[in-house]
Amino acid sequence: MRKRLLSFPFYAFTNQYCIAFSLLLVIAACSAPKPAIPPAPIIGSTNPIFNQVTVEQEGFIYENAPFPECHASSIVELANGKMMATWFGGTREKNPDVTIWLATFENGKWGKIQEIADGIQNDTLRYPCWNPVLFKNKKGKLFLFYKVGPTPRDWWGMMKYSVDDGQTWSYDEKLPKNRLGPIRAKPIELDNGDLLCPSSVEFKGGYWRTHMEIYTPKRNFWKKIDIDPNTDFDVIQPTVLRHSENKLQILCRSRQNKIVESWSSDNGRSWSKLTATNLPNPSAGIDGISLPNGQHLLVYNPTEDGKNDRAKLNIAISKDGKNWTDIYELENQTTGEFSYPAMVQTADGLIHVTYTWKRQKVKHVVLSLE
């Protein structure tokens, strides 16, 4: 198993504390014949809950495919330790032959990839597919959300579902007008079973706006919640973090070279004004998760807009959603595109990340935090 940590700063102590600390070490050495050596600390944190990031597994979901390009993966945990990933693939993004693909991960291996949705309208008209999102609710219903249309300014939302972990699927269903579903990152499930879907719109006028959509599966009902519609930020593709029973945070892709945030204190029913964080963003997709211990992970490109701005891909950790520390480099290249990550934590505590690898493949990395 490969361990790779970023460099971290050393913190100085006063002479007084150093002497006291040395005496404690002497006492400990005398009382313990084999003192344990702690693992290398996560960078930048003086009191981390996790001390070490370990790569348990990494590789590509497929080696060969009937399409030359792919993008925008999503991943979800199924029953019995299985995983499923989805992405769009075709000759090139925006081309009509771009369709939705998926594969299942079992016993440490990815199975055969299969096409699951396309944008065929009739015998003479076909549109590309975009940004699939997988989500499984607490009742075991597996949702696949995706978009169809000529461009992100003209696309519409689609969905299908499975009640047997993807062995069979429902018919494709078009979402109501002006409802797009989760636009790139996964939704979260509320206590009443509703799905809070992070969404956004790329308007024909050239500006971007983010919003939330609440989907009630039992009534097949959608409701839109605006988020700071008069903002000066151009923001899309939010990811949702949960801080407490009612406190939520979204982090958004932006054109302003920063990840932009908003907060909710009523479980997503209303949201604060959008503000810039200290995290850079080259107008690229991000994803985040909230851990059982109250910390949060974010996977993102730690760069600003410019040449080769998607050649680096990091994972950061935070206790409060405000102060973030990079803990792992998924990619640290000078050229190439490594982007549009997706991340989940499975029941065994492992972190699974998928992301676009040079637009040619989807990479899968499994990490443990200790």
Describe the secondary-structure layout.
Layout: E1 2-3, H1 15-31, E2 53-60, E3 69-77, E4 83-90, E5 99-106, E6 109-110, E7 114-117, E8 129-136, E9 142-148, E10 156-162, E11 173-174, E12 188-189, E13 195-202, E14 208-216, E15 221-226, E16 235-242, E17 248-254, E18 258-264, E19 275-280, E20 287-290, E21 296-300, E22 312-318, E23 325-332, E24 338-345, E25 351-357, E26 361-369
Antiparallel strand pairs: 1-2, 2-26, 3-4, 4-5, 5-6, 5-7, 8-9, 9-10, 10-11, 12-13, 13-14, 14-15, 16-17, 17-18, 18-19, 20-21, 21-22, 22-23, 24-25, 25-26
Distance separating the two termini: 14 Å
The largest pleated sheet is described as:
5 strands, antiparallel
Shape assignment: globular
Helical segment count = 1
How do the strands of the widest beta sheet line up side by side?
1-2-26-25-24
Mean pLDDT across all amino acids: 90
